[in-house]
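Give me the fold.
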Amino acid sequence: MEESYQAAVRRERMQSIQALNFELKYMIVGHTTAFQEAFESFLRLAENRTRSLFEAAYRPMAKEAAEPVKELFTDISLYILGAETTVENAVLRFFDSLFPLVYSRLINPGITDLSEDYTECLRLTRQDINPFGHYSKNMVTELSKSLWASRMLSQALSLGTEVINTTEHAALTKECSRALVRMQYCPHCQGLTLIRPCVGYCLNVMRGCLASVSELDMQWREYISTLEYLTNEMGASHDLEIALTGIWNSINEAILHAQLNGPQLSATVDKVCGQPKQQEGNLSSGHIVPLKKATEAQTLVLAHASLNNRRREFINYMKRSRTFYASIAERLCDGDLVMRDSSTCWNGEDVVESYTSRVVSSGLKAQINNPELKVRGLDPLISNLIDKLQNFNQLDAEKAKLKLERWSSRDTGSGGGRSEELETSGDCDDEDGCQGSGDRIHTAGKCVFSGHIQSLEIPMCHS
């Protein structure tokens, strides 16, 4: 019978804790789902807009650029979800793949032989001559700020769910099970089925049983502060939506920069990789079609507003849960479990008018003086959770600031020796080989390719 009662109290305690956790878990899981749906939506919009850029403005390379674009956004998605990768690696890998296409389809569209060796040489050359100027570096910096905050928030939400699930299923010790049976079912042996435990008695038993769980209190409070910081960052300077939807513009500016410096790039590439076979005659860069962005913009605004509303609702609720683990014993002893409006209650041995033993406070150390049960130490599962929270909570505003400052001081290319040289107005002399095919003439704020004037809704050229 005692074993049956112990099984019953373990089941009841788990159900009681699950009931307490329900709203908190619902908010965290719900926001996790909303966050994932939102960033996936923004990723799709950003990828579609980038694809549209190539289809409309750089059609000769649009088909071949589809795979690098797909890989870039896949890498971004994996980074946000916590994969062991970096934004810098994703962006630079994209530009490594993009340069051979820009060089052979836009700067020198007459190239007919683009072998694997020549393509690989172009990829390696990009790292040294930095053909995309500061635009690739700026793209790394801007995305790193936003995606870092999103990545950390994603990890924070996963950690919050893990904390709740672990505390729901934390095993009760034998001492705890016996104390719960004595508190709830021993009166039945005397025929006292309606008598309930005294409030102080219940608090001692619950605080002893949940001593390990209550040790989460300090780190949980810090976790909520970190969560609030990340949520604010997501809605401020590290806005995920703005960063993702601005990718197409960064890529466009980078390609324009490479085209403007095409002659210098060609001269350098010829020295390093040799001169590939070229078709005679000047090839057109293709007809340009204006981009249609109204529907995407409307969808983006709605998704942005929805996420911001959920974000505010979520963090306001989480701030109210700061004391959740400090007060969990009190919540379990509240309501129908104990006698509050009666002159008598159960103290573990008899029916009394009041509980006279000392009522200990929450926490592991306080249980030394607990008169109802012995607490032998910290639950290993809870100890592991505390370590995880502590490691995560080491994130603070100053560390974030230092991390982001490092991005702004880094150079993009591994060599970078010619980056300053290539960030010029595009002027060159005959020795630089300015009369090659695919030359760009910069006049009156318009870009001319082989006699075709480009006009596009995107700010393609600069006067």
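The chain is about 60% helix and 5% strand.
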